[in-house]
């Protein structure tokens, strides 16, 4: 069974918001925007995403930023894609 599910985190500096959403069955769900903006233009950061039983736990620079409840079976997640205007200096998958 192949199920394409997309979880997206988008930092919008101009809106001072980090938008979280998921795409499943070619439809976007409701956006989540709660929380402060942890990113600054031109400043590096560490981002950690833990896939737990009921939600993604998202950490920025070692501090919990937010969680994002699963909208599909977390066992269907099989990859990670990073794109956009970002300078990636490293990635670690555990």
UniProtKB/TrEMBL annotation:
PROSITE patterns: GALECTIN. Residues 1-94 form the Galectin domain. Pfam families: Gal-bind_lectin. One of its GO terms (molecular function) is carbohydrate binding. Gene3D superfamilies: 2.60.120.200. It comes from the Eukaryota. Keywords: Lectin. InterPro entries: ConA-like_dom_sf, Galectin-like, Galectin_CRD. This is Galectin. It comes from Trichostrongylus colubriformis (Black scour worm). The lineage of its organism: Eukaryota, Metazoa, Ecdysozoa, Nematoda, Chromadorea.
């Amino acid at each position: 069974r192949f199920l394409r599910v997309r979880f997206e985190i988008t930092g919008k500096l101009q809106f001072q918001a980090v938008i979280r959403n998921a795409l499943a069955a070619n439809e976007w769900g409701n956006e989540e925007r709660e929380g402060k903006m942890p990113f600054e233009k031109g400043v590096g950061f560490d981002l950690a995403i833990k896939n737990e039983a009921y939600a993604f736990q998202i950490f920025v620079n070692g501090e919990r930023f937010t969680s994002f409840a699963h909208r599909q079976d977390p066992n269907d997640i099989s990859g990670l894609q990073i794109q956009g205007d970002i300078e990636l200096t490293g990635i670690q998958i555990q």
